[in-house]
Amino acid sequence: MTTVVRIIDLIKYYELGSVLVKALDGVSLTVHEGEFVALMGPSGSGKSTLLNLLGCLDRPTYGHYYLAGQDVAGMPDDQLSDIRSRFLGFIFQQYNLLAQYTVVENIEVPLLYQERRLTEETRQRCIELAELVGLGQRLDHRPMQLSGGQQQRVAIARALVNDPQVILADEPTGNLDTRTSEEIMQLLTRLNQAGKTIIMVTHENDIASWAKRVVRMRDGIVETDELNTPHWLRDGATVSA
């Protein structure tokens, strides 16, 4: 299997006044192409810090991080920005949509950050992504006209616009009710079945049960790392389209 993410002895310290906080204390982890990994752990376990490092939004104090074979741990900001735009897609708990933009325009945002020229071709791709996540009838709606689940669907489509190798999801169902959470997890599962690698932070066991692998963290280290049979496979069900 192709390795897309590999971290070796990752350490992250923060200085809070005179106190040195060890957010990560020597974490090693390998993620292969097509995996669906859930990162779990109590508050302060280091899971969010790890996701930020995997997303090249922060740098480790020590250690190595290989993304698609490149050691990105010590790269300067401009290179990290390029790596993020080419290899990673982000889904956040708070959606982070622009209120004045339509569904299609929000999906286009990562292309603007890349300073790519928006063309009829790029617009059509964004429309196709909106249709993929079930928003084909909402193309001109703005975030305030959408439900929480629909806003998260926009965020998922936005994460896909650059065709990333890895999707990083930070509590993607944290603001959603049970039924909508299941719809979002079905969508993420379909994307994983289509070949996308997904690394997801969650504190909910029922959400983690959708993943193929569950990594539990505590006090800045990996406590357990176990393969998991997604609940819908155990139940003999299918993921609805």
Shape assignment: globular
Structural class given helices, strands, pairing? alpha/beta
CA distance, first residue to last residue: 27 Å
- Helical content band: 25-40%
CATH fold category name? Rossmann fold
| Biggest beta-sheet profile | 6 strands, mixed
Rg from alpha-carbon coordinates: 18 Å
Q: Major sheet: order of its strands?
A: 6-7-8-3-9-10
- Order of H and E elements: EEEHEEHEHHHEHEHEEH
**Oligomer classification:** single chain
Poorly predicted parts: none
CATH homologous superfamily identity: P-loop containing nucleotide triphosphate hydrolases
CATH class: Alpha Beta
CATH architecture heading: 3-Layer(aba) Sandwich
What is the overall number of helices? 8
Mean pLDDT: 92
Beta-strand share of residues: 25-35%
What is the total tally of β strands?
10
Written description of the protein model:
By secondary structure, this protein is of the alpha/beta class. It has a single domain (3-234), classed as Rossmann fold (3-Layer(aba) Sandwich). It has eight helices and ten strands. A hairpin with a 2-residue loop joins strand 9 and strand 10 (221-227). Helix 3 (103-113) packs across helix 4 (120-132) and helix 3 packs parallel to helix 5 (148-160). The protein is globular. The mean pLDDT is 92.
Short description:
This protein has 241 residues and is of the alpha/beta class. It has a single domain (3-234), classed as P-loop containing nucleotide triphosphate hydrolases (Rossmann fold, 3-Layer(aba) Sandwich), CATH 3.40.50.
List the helices and strands and how they pair.
Elements: E1 3-16, E2 19-32, E3 36-40, H1 47-54, E4 62-67, E5 70-71, H2 77-87, E6 88-92, H3 103-113, H4 120-132, H5 148-160, E7 166-170, H6 178-193, E8 197-201, H7 205-208, E9 213-218, E10 221-227, H8 231-234
Parallel strand pairs: 3-8, 3-9, 6-7, 7-8
Antiparallel strand pairs: 1-2, 1-4, 4-5, 9-10
Helix pairs in contact: 3-4, 3-5, 4-5, 5-6
